[in-house]
Each structure stands twice: as structure tokens, then as C-alpha cells.
Specification:
Layout: E1 7-9, E2 15-17, E3 21-22, H1 30-41, E4 46-48, H2 56-70, E5 78-83, H3 90-104, E6 109-114, H4 122-134, E7 138-144, H5 148-157, E8 164-168, H6 176-184, E9 188-192, H7 204-213, H8 217-227, E10 231-232, H9 239-246, H10 255-262
Parallel strand pairs: 3-4, 4-5, 5-6, 6-7, 7-8, 8-9, 9-10
Antiparallel strand pairs: 1-2
Helix pairs in contact: 1-2, 2-3, 3-4, 7-8
Amino acid sequence: MKNLQDTVNLLNGIKMPWLGLGVFKVEEGQELVDAVSSAIRNGYRSIDTAAIYENEAGVGEGIKKGMQETGITREDLFITSKVWTEDLGYEETIKAYETSLNKLGLEYLDLYLIHWPKEGKYKAAWRALETLYKEGKVRTIGVSNFQIHHLEELMKDAEIQPMINQIELHPRLTQKELIAYCQEKSIQVEAWSPLMQGQLLDQPELVEIASKYQKSVAQIIIRWDLQNGIVTIPKSVKEHRIVENGNVFDFILTKEEMAKIDALNLDQRVGPDPDNFDF
């Protein structure tokens, strides 16, 4: 991978950018619109949102603004959203998809995900995603926060295999077993909260590696993700930080440095446990 437009081929041959912009906890408003448009202006082609973020309208505005400023087309972009647990179910998920699409002001999504593996609900939702995929309304479908047993259960009845599993992943939660399983099944792993919501930025081992390359700790973590074959979507609303997060293609971490970062794992989450959540 050489730049922000470099892509990975998903299971069905669709190309997804390795690096994108996440907008979790970014409220509707001009700051959001500007963050999305500035990401596009600075070379990003992948934007990740979700129904529960309640910011799809602003993301849509930012996409439109970014396209106008750069002259790129909708086909150049890769836009992701997710169905929330309250809307899991066949008809409910179809309806939720249409709602998200309308808020974003788009004619299709590139990726639609089941946000959390709500027991007794996600299989019907997956059937809805399969329908949307067959109808050409979404180019790829996947899941988020699914553990191995959730994936196995889903695939017992699925006609189409998930193409993505978006999970919490950072140096304190390396999820090696889950990654190995997904790779074996050709499910692309995508990291959310790759920077552990800022909790790793003064980690001594990471600071030391960052100083060697004259990079930020955030850039070191993003590079670690990419070298592990993980798609990643760091969040920022500041243009200089968005640019910095994308400037990770001019250095390569050594095997020893990769191992040193892996060794920071504590199986520590900042988000909910996929096996024990109450929403």
C-alpha cells in the first residue's frame, strides 16, 4: 500500500480503501461537514458512519461538499453505515437501510454492517442485508463486533458470507485469535477505536518507536494496523490531524517493532463486550 487510495480486495472483488475516516461521537453540525469534506480533499476515499451516531445527514453534506471541492465522483468513494440493534429484524433492517440512505442523500452504500450481534435478532437482519446486496442497493455487506461463535452461528444459515468484521482493535486489544479466524474465512477485519480513544498516545514503547521515525504515536498505531492487514478508520475532526493520520505510507515498522506493539496487549476494551451488552 502506497497511499490513501490504495485498496484491499474484499471477498466479492469489491475494492475497499485500507484507511478511512471514522465519525463516532461527532455531532451534526459544521464541524462534522468540514471534517468529512476536508478528509476527501486530502485524499481519503472511505467514510464510516452509523445510524446510532445520529450524524448521517452531516456526513452526507460533507460528502457532497468534498465531491464539489475535488471533482471526484460518488463511484470514487466508499461509504459505510450500520444498522442499530433496535432495528434488527428483516423488515426493520430494510427500513433502517432506506432511512440511512435518505439521511446520507445517497443512492447506494458501499458497505452496510450489523452493528452488534444481538441474540435472536441478527440472523433475520442478515437475511435483509443479503436481500439488499442481491438487489444491488449495497455493494458489500458485513458485521461489526462479532466474535468467532457469532460468525459461526450466522454462517450456519447464511447464503452470503460476511465480507467485513469491524471490531474494536488496538495495541491493548489485539484480538489475534479472532483475526486469524477471519483471515482463514476471507473476512476482512476492520479496526474501530484504533487509537483507544487517545489512551495510548503517551505509551512509552510507542513514544520510543514514534521518535525513531519522527512520527506521532497515532501514525505508528495506524501503520501497525496496516502492516497487520487490518483496514482502519481513525476518527478526527481537525484537518491537520486528519492529514497526519493519512501520512503513514513513507515508513515501514520492523518485525521487532511490530512484536513490541503486539506485546502491549492486555485484552482491554474501551467499548462494550460483544458477549455482554444490554442495548
